[in-house]
Amino acid sequence: MATFRKKIEAVIGSHNSSGNNTEANYLETLDDFLKQSAMAVIDVLPDGALMQDSIYSTINNASGLGTADKKILLVSRNGFGCVEVPLQLKAYMEASSGSLYEPTKRTPVYYIEGKVSAGGDLFVKPNPTGSETARVYHISYPSPLHSDTAITNFPDTAEYAVVLGASIRVLQSKINDLIHEDEDNEMAQVATQELGTLLQLYNDKITRLGGQPTMGVKDGAK
């Protein structure tokens, strides 16, 4: 099976090392753009399209679950679905708060509270226990490498969208070099036309996957 590098270069052509644009720098850039593209694809796809590749983590106490590098898809407690509530309602979610908003075993909730670093923690209320556990279904944001041939726990049908997204970012970088370093406006114009075609292919693919396209010419590289 072809690596992601080969798949990208099948779309935009092979890399030619020159000046500071060494092979090592190019491969580092590919890895960075693949990660950015995979994150972007996950964020625009509907949760339902991601559930079949999701994993779940179990909570059996009041400690919560770290959410760094995770997209939360579904939370349940003892088989009952949890509704997300705003953090500002945290005090009302505690047991015996006396609030009309106080959750019950049949109407559990969850909220996410930020930390000083490394993302936030997700808390389920009422507090889960060893016999009444909570499950947090999520998909992790991957960091695919140029040498990989697939992405673990990621929809197979969405992998080509990642390739297209990374290709767009590489091409946008090339256009920037053509304009600002090589001052080759003619080649930059040709590459910009190619970029427009790739953007259309990417957005069409995202639409077929059930997502909402967000990538345009101006944000082709982020």
Short descriptors:
single chain, 222 residues, alpha+beta, four-stranded antiparallel sheet, four-stranded mixed sheet, 17% strand
Tell me what you see in this structure:
The chain has about 220 residues and is an alpha+beta fold. Helix content is about 35%, strand content about 15%. It has five helices and eight strands; from the N terminus they run H-H-H-E-E-E-E-E-E-E-E-H-H. Helix 1 packs across helix 4, helix 2 crosses helix 4 and helix 4 runs antiparallel to helix 5. The relative contact order is 0.20. The C terminus is likely disordered.
Report the average pLDDT across residues: 90
Number of strands: 8
Helix content range: 25-40%
Helix/strand class: alpha+beta
Strand order of the largest sheet: 1-8-3-4
The poorly predicted ranges are 217-222
Number of helices: 5
Strand content: 15-25%
Major beta-sheet overview? 4 strands, antiparallel
Spatial extent as radius of gyration = 22 Å
The 3D shape can be described as elongated
Series of secondary-structure elements, N-terminal to C-terminal: HHHEEEEEEEEHH
Distance between the termini: 28 Å
Annotate the secondary structure layout.
Blueprint (H helix, E strand, L loop, with lengths): L3 H9 L10 H22 L2 H5 L3 E5 L5 E2 L3 E8 L2 E2 L1 E2 L24 E6 L5 E6 L8 E7 L18 H22 L4 H24 L14
Parallel strand pairs: 5-6
Antiparallel strand pairs: 1-8, 2-7, 3-4, 3-8, 6-7
